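We emphasize that the prediction below concerns an isolated chain of 238 residues; any contacts that depend on oligomerization or on bound cofactors are therefore not represented. The input was used exactly as deposited, without trimming of termini.
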Amino acid sequence: MIPLKDDVPSHGTPVVTVSLILLNVLAFLYQASLGLEAGGGPARAAQAFVVEFGLIPCRLTGQCVAPGDFPHPVVTIFTSMFLHGGLFHIAGNMLYLWIFGNNVEDTLGHGRFLLFYLLAGVAAAVGQTMMGPGSTIPMIGASGAVSGVLGAYLFLFPHATVLTLITFGFFIRFVHVPAMIVLGLWIVVQLLNGYVTFSAQASGRGEAGGVAWFAHIGGFVAGIALLFLMRPRRTARL
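Result of the prediction step, given as a token string:
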């Protein structure tokens, strides 16, 4: 199920949303320019770039501090939001940001939306780090911040519908699906996978690697909370 377009009109130019997408794309193109190994994996330069600017939980918690650590672990919370692990990773994140970000930006205004986006990303990073404070695996991607956008959108426009591409084998159809279902199913998937990951970690069968489910969950919850804190109050009209 791939969302393509919602039915909520945008009342202004989503300057911040477009700028964030461009920054993510530029960062991804730079990553891609670092090249691939003969086997198709990322070149050493690309791997080093991710390790340097990705968020490594143990660096943030101080469990694997290295002399002359650069950039500062707190800075990597923000730099990691603009790095991605591959074409499908960035395409999915930017698609969701493009569909749902403009309406949240309309509601909050440009400055508030930028702050909202970054704070949701911070909350996502903290959430993931709390679940694996000693992890040495870099966390990258805009997923946490975008999850915050999804949480806010769900509360702002619960009755919106989303044009969705549904594929099942040879069955392909475009269907208008309520946003409540699209985003509701999305967060259910995150919660289920987060539970499976947590269970594996608790039993010693896994580490906080792969998909950062808890970053998605943390960002989503933070997005809802930040919406209520940052949404401009409506003034009564006489």
